[in-house]
């Protein structure tokens, strides 16, 4: 809102962050665990007096130096660059609140660089004991970098009391600090083992390849086993909503976790079979396959961790669309566009409605949704929704889907965004329609648009309501949470529930029966003063049950002298049943 939006309609900024971030953490965790791996591999060579193992360690150190200091550093800068462009508000907030932590991390990173260069370039050129100390120094500095970054990014998911106090140490030692630190340390050791197997696979000496493959495989196996309790601990400290997301509430998160689980199982099998039990099987394709599994596993974890923050980018502080939670009430009252700095339209008018709606999409939706592209394509997601359905849904989408930020703005702005999506994107009508009094079917349709159409197409529900009567359909609407825990019971009045039930039944081709309501009594009360039974039978002879029900809601259109039917929706259903029964329609 206070920064311009870097608009990339074809891909979305979030996708770029994900691609760069996963690539970077795949290397940065190796940069931590790999430092300890080098020291212990060197100690192994010294203990066994094996020059071949020492030569392997030096080759691995060269690979380590190039990978971590070149690719790791470039991708690290890339992360800062991309997050500053995509979400400058959150980036600025974290820098200003944790400037001491970032400064300390940069100091340790400087030590890492110096120690890594000394370790490689003085390999075999200084006393072994001194050289090992340099390696340990590198590992300590790298692990301290991990510790510091872990504390800062952890607060984005589990802020705890920091969300209110903004105190540095409360944020740094947030609820997920320790489980996340131990889990990431396990991942760092796992990465060291995987990269070690990769270097071993390129070794020309069979004995060294077998020895160092098994050595690396043990690292990977121990890390995977140790990571299990750490992961469970990590999940246990998450906020309730985040726990629900990572345990299956979100289909996309569940899918990512499935990919991660498959990758872990494959990596475990490869580690056991080709690294520990039969290390002679480790070759370049096998090692690359293990690396791919590790990459997918780590990508699944990072994507899930990011998704678990929804609807926030910094939990309880900044929503994923860069709107501060504390500003929401003011924006709803005054209007979002009026407060936004980088928009062309600061209020919605009849002339700029579509343009204002497009700007609202960019400012509030684009951070997670593209239009016609692959990142949560909003065009596809809203394809079956009408303008009234969008108006109703956007106004309460945070209630329906808590992992989405609430819309920030006035009702007029809600309608502008809805008009842009329905009219500009889908070419649908964007007229506000209000059902006429007495037209129960139209009222039911409007209730469907407002309460159901965000998730369900009308035709998708035909089977569920076919053959139901109003009472049965109404009972279903009252117990939707028992049908699916992702739905809530219909919250309207009894009459509105009956109107919605009547609409769903009529659209499903069913016959509405209203057990407990005497249709003959309804006829006597509302019709018999002017109409005899035989007159009604003749007048409706060409209508089926659904047409009778519909036309009872539009009597003044059929005969201008007739007043609208003034009974309840249930009574109209009962009257339709009664008239249809007089004709032998049942």
CATH topology of the largest domain: Formate dehydrogenase/DMSO reductase fold
Strand content: under 5%
> How many distinct beta strands?
2
C-alpha geometry: elongated
Cα-atom radius of gyration: 32 Å
Which architecture of the largest domain would the CATH scheme give at its second level? Up-down Bundle
In percent, how helical is the residue content? 55-70%
Strand order, largest beta sheet = 1-2
> What integer is the average pLDDT?
89
Structure overview:
This is Cytochrome C oxidase, cbb3-type, subunit III. The chain crosses the membrane at residues 16-40, 61-86, 106-123, 135-162, 182-203, 215-236, 256-277, 286-303. Keywords: Heme, Iron, Membrane, Metal-binding, Transmembrane, Transmembrane helix. GO terms for molecular function: electron transfer activity; heme binding; metal ion binding. This protein has three domains: 13-310, Formate dehydrogenase/DMSO reductase fold (Up-down Bundle); 325-425, Cytochrome Bc1 Complex, Chain D, domain 2 (Orthogonal Bundle), CATH 1.10.760; 440-582, no CATH class. The chain is mostly helical and 586 residues long. Residues 510-516 have low confidence and may be disordered. The chain has a two-stranded antiparallel sheet. The chain is built from 29 helices and two strands. It is 68% helix and 1% strand. A hairpin with a 3-residue loop joins strand 1 (312-314) and strand 2.
């Amino acid at each position: 809102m206070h920064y311009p939006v870097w608009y990339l309609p074809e891909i979305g900024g979030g996708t770029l962050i994900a691609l760069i971030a996963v690539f970077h953490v795949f290397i940065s965790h190796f940069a931590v665990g790999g430092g300890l791996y080098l020291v212990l591999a060197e100690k192994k060579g010294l203990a066994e007096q094996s020059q071949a193992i020492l030569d392997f360690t030096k080759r691995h150190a060269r690979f380590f130096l190039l990978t971590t200091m070149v690719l790791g550093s470039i991708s690290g800068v890339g992360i800062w660059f991309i997050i500053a462009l995509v979400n400058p508000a959150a980036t600025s907030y974290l820098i200003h609140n944790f400037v001491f932590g970032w400064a300390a991390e940069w100091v340790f990173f400087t030590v890492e660089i110096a120690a890594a260069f000394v370790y490689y370039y003085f390999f075999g050129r200084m006393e072994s004991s001194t050289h090992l100390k340099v390696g340990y120094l590198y590992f300590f500095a790298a692990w301290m970098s991990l510790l510091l970054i872990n504390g800062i990014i952890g607060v984005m998911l589990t802020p705890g009391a920091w969300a209110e106090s903004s105190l540095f140490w409360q944020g740094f030692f947030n609820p997920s600090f320790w489980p996340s630190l131990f889990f990431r340390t396990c991942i760092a050791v796992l990465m060291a083992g995987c990269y070690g197997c990769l270097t071993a696979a390129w070794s020309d000496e069979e004995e060294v390849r077998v020895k160092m493959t098994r050595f690396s495989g043990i690292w990977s196996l121990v890390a995977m086993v140790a990571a299990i309790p750490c992961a469970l601990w990590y999940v246990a400290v998450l906020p309730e909503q985040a726990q629900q997301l990572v345990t299956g509430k979100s289909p996309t998160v569940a899918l990512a976790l499935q990919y991660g689980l498959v990758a872990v199982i494959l990596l475990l099998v490869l580690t056991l079979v080709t690294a520990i039990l039969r290390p002679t099987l480790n070759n370049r394709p096998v090692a690359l396959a293990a690396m791919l599994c590790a990459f997918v596993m780590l990508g699944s974890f990072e994507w899930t961790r990011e998704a678990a923050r929804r609807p926030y980018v910094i939990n309880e502080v900044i929503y994923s669309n860069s709107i501060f939670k504390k500003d929401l009430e003011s924006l709803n009252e005054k209007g979002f566009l009026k407060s936004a700095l980088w928009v062309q339209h600061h209020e919605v008018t009849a002339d700029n409605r579509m343009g204002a709606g497009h700007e609202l999409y960019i400012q509030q939706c684009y951070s997670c949704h593209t239009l016609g592209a692959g990142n949560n394509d909003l065009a596809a997601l809203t394809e079956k929704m009408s303008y009234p359905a969008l108006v109703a849904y956007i106004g309460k989408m945070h209630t329906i889907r808590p992992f989405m930020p609430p819309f920030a703005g006035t009702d007029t702005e809600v309608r502008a965004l809805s008009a842009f999506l329905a009219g500009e994107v889908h070419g649908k009508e964007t007229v506000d329609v209000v059902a006429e009094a007495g037209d129960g079917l139209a009222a039911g349709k409007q209730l469907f648009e407002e309460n159901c159409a965000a998730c369900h197409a009308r035709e998708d529900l035909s089977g569920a309501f076919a053959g139901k009567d109003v009472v049965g359909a109404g009972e279903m609407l009252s117990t939707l949470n028992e049908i699916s825990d992702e739905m809530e019971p219909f919250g309207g009045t009894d009459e509105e529930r009956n109107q919605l039930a009547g609409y769903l039944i009529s659209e499903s081709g069913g016959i509405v029966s209203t057990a407990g309501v005497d249709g003959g009594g309804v006829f006597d009360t509302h019709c018999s003063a002017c109409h005899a039974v035989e007159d009604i039978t003749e007048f409706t002879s060409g209508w089926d049950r659904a047409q009778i029900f519909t036309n009872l809601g539009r009597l003044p259109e059929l005969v201008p002298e007739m007043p609208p039917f003034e009974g309840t929706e249930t009574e109209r259903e009962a009257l339709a049943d009664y008239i249809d029964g007089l004709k032998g329609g049942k």
